[in-house]
Amino acid sequence: MSLKKATFIIILVLLIDQISKIYIKTNFVLGEHVEVFSWFKILFIENEGAAWGTKISDIIPGVSDEAGKLFLTVFRLIAICGIGYWLVDSVKKNSTPTLILAVSLIFAGALGNIIDSVFYGLIFDDSYGHVATLFSDEPYGTLFHGKVVDMLHFPMIDTVLPDWFPIWGGKNFRFFEPVFNVADAAISIGVGVLLIFNKKAFPNEGK
To answer: Which residues form the active site (predicted)?
Structure first.
């Protein structure tokens, strides 16, 4: 796969990701949801941390949320540079289309969330109790302190476990609980391709 094709994939994922996020941010109040199907909802939340909303301050006591957010954003920027190098190097070495596709998806997803983290605090006001304004005169944050917009929710199973069920009997059980976005999906698909089609992605290593 050529670098042009990889770039096309990245741009396509970024466009879908950013258009969906801007639409949600400028049309939904934080916490608002729309039920598309019983197993699929559009639910607007904002993620200030890493995966599943984990914050650096949750892991390292004493670190402020502001410092933790800055550290996480800088880490993401360093990581995206490494992924970008991996992608270009893979193309130069004529690696398999499977590997280049997977790395392109991971790069696009990581870059999509970085855009939120770096710029959204500067261009949006907050979404508490009202719909946010794009290019607001009163932005909610600063450079590197934006929040990632999530909206895809798939509660395919939402039930109460029977009382006889060990430990969790009588408690609510929901699958799939996390709320994510297009960028997260691209990263997950890219990693999934590497795991499932490992021999196609790395044929030389397999030999």
So the answer is: 150, 184
- Tell me, yes or no, if 184 is annotated catalytic: yes
What is the SS3 assignment for 161? Answer: coil
For the chain, list the strands marked E by DSSP: 33-37, 40-47, 148-153, 157-160, 172-175, 179-180
- Per-block average pLDDT, block size 10, for the chain (207 residues)? 96 98 98 94 88 61 73 90 97 96 98 96 96 97 94 91 86 88 96 95 74
Token pair listed for 182:
């297009």
**Spatial CA neighbour of 151 closest among 73, 51, 47:** 47
* pTM assigned to the model: 0.89
Q: If you count DSSP H runs as helices and E runs as strands, how many of each does the chain have, helices first?
A: 7, 6
Q: What is the pLDDT of residue 58?
A: 59
The yes-or-no answer on residue 150 being catalytic is yes
Q: Which of 17, 116, 125, 184 is catalytic?
A: 184
